[in-house]
Specification:
There is one protein chain. The chain has eight helices and no strands. By secondary structure, the chain is an all-alpha fold. Helix 3 packs across helix 6, helix 5 runs parallel beside helix 7 and helix 6 packs across helix 7. The longest helix has 23 residues. It is globular, with a radius of gyration of 17 Å.
Length: about 140
């Protein structure tokens, strides 16, 4: 991460750490079945997005007004409060967080984005190591 520029990292929607898979994990369930299961989750989420946004319009292109429409008011209050208390949480990050949270809600087949979805999205969008690397430059 230290080799990537701040502006580049600022445009990444999701940043997370992925741990190596152990041999036991690889043996537990055939990879083909895992892939099929994940494909079904993604397909279901894509269909939900297309029904709500129009065919071919993914959550990644939604603007703030549309994201507000499909987010529970209490959840919006939570993300606004977080933005007001965090000096590194820009408006761009707020929109990105709502987009990721909307996708999380779609994966869970929820009509409205809830506070729990936003908390989970904050973990992906506000990855602390990225902020550390960027501020050290």
């Amino acid at each position: 991460l230290s080799k990537l520029s701040g502006p580049f990292l600022d445009r990444c929607d999701i940043i997370t750490r992925i741990h190596a898979t152990s041999s036991d994990d690889l043996k537990s369930e055939p990879l083909k079945h895992q892939s099929e299961r994940f494909y079904c989750y993604v397909l279901r989420a894509s269909i939900a997005q297309f029904k709500r946004n129009g065919v071919g319009i993914y959550n990644s292109s939604l603007q703030l007004d549309k994201l507000k429409e499909c987010t529970a008011p209490r959840a919006l209050d939570h993300v606004y409060k977080y933005k007001d208390t965090s000096s590194r949480f820009s408006s761009r990050k707020l929109v990105r967080c709502l987009r990721v949270a909307r996708t999380i809600a779609d994966l869970k087949s929820k009509e409205k984005t809830q506070q729990r979805d936003i908390v989970q999205a904050l973990d992906f969008v506000n990855f602390s190591i990225v902020d550390t690397y960027v501020s050290d430059r």
